[in-house]
Amino acid sequence: MEGKYAQDPVQEHNQRVPLSPFDTRQSYAAPLSPLIGGPSFPGKDYPINEKKHLSALQVYEKQPIPVPKPAASNPRPVVLNKSLKFWTWFSPYRQMLLLVVAVEAIMVIITLLGGWHFARTHLPAMVTGNLLVAIAIRSEWVMRFLYWVSIKLFRRWTPLKVRVLVVAILYHIGGLHSGCGIGAMMWLLLAWTYHIMNKDLYHSLVMASLFVSMIVVVATCFVATPLVRAIHHNIFEITHRFLGWLGIITSLIFVIVSSWWDVNTQSWRTSSRYLIRQEEFWFMIAIIPLIIGQWITVRHVPVVVTAPSSKASVIRVPGGLTSGLHTRVSRGGLKEWHIFGSISEGKHADCHYIVMAVQGGFTRAMNKDQPETLYTKTWKPCGLPYFSRLFNRGVAICTGSGIGAVGSTCIQHGDWFLIWIGADLEKTYGSEFINFIKSKIEPERLLIWDTKGPLGRPDVNVELEKVYKQWNAQVALFIGSPALNKSVLRTSRARGIPVFGSIWDA
């Protein structure tokens, strides 16, 4: 939806229908099944035994529900101009990436021109310092600490704009990871240039370790580019992990041998006192626990995989979780790991659920094989919904299996409203799972829209703004496809609604 605001007849009709549970009028509704609450559909009176057009129909009268705010009129059309499109594309992730790369490039140029003596004489420290920051930002231990601190510091007293800014920075902090990775590559290239220019001064072992480290880091950065990552995602996952480990090892070797080689006497001085004086050595020491910390909580656990359809699987994993945490799972424990949103009633529950859409080889095999055990990491990473604690009221809107990311937020926090949109939801995810969601979230803050129902596809932007205003929300979270994510972010920016969506290029 760009430029001119256009809709098909079904979408236009949907806008005229009071779809929110805030509506106090009594009207007939036609949900797809007794398990799925549907929106009001005035003018249509379906008898309960009608089966000609719909698999299951139910006629009921909506009970009056207290309205916290008068219903808003239909949102006005918006024009998505070039400036709005650019600033939506130029997300905090890209802003942070550009800023870090620009600063690193300027420092490299100044050093190359002879204007920064410290960097010229401490090139290994510049490389390893960037590697340390890049790895720390991807550490689940570090990120959970940063998320937790931000919530404790900013939840109660800061203005809404400040809290939104805090979320934008931390949620898109992957730009710092990517920027420092590129920075390490640039400093390595500069170090290699200086070593080649003065190759007679360095031992072949120093040159070899530097060369291998440079090649590995350059290859890691190349494979992580959005184009390669999108087309060959499995290759990216494998190379980013194993090349990353190789890069750490070769960089550590380079740090050790370069500190032990004396260019003045052209001899080795293999004493620890020379090593411990080097900043780069301590940077590398700090990296080691960050790497090990990612793996010490790996466990092989029993799971229950159900496949209500060929399009999705629902996996029951032992242990309850607080809202906003995700789960990493693997069938091998080393080669291939995948992260999914997790639905749980709370940290004291006996299990949590993963909703897995069938989209690739791993998820397809899970749906078909339904294994009884999986590897998982008991220390869970934080996701976008973890920031729900910063806001008094919010709206979480998702499509399809996106329910896995935001379900816990609306189950565990009574001030959050859930909109779940999808096709054949009961057939795809099973009546048991649908019933679980309905039983844990009160009807007055739940809207489940099945696009195969009589109302067809909704205009997501229209429904989001309606519920956002009626619910008196402070922020909205959206989990959906890249195309719909782009549309929601653009339109919401134009309407002044703070919305955070999925990141597809971080």
Automatic annotation (TrEMBL):
Protein known as: Uncharacterized protein
Keywords of the record: Membrane, Transmembrane, Transmembrane helix
PANTHER family recorded: TRANSMEMBRANE PROTEIN
Top-level division of the source organism's lineage: Eukaryota
Transmembrane feature ranges: 96-119, 162-189, 201-230, 242-261, 281-298
Coiled coil: none
Family annotation (InterPro entries): Adenylate-forming_domain (IPR052979)
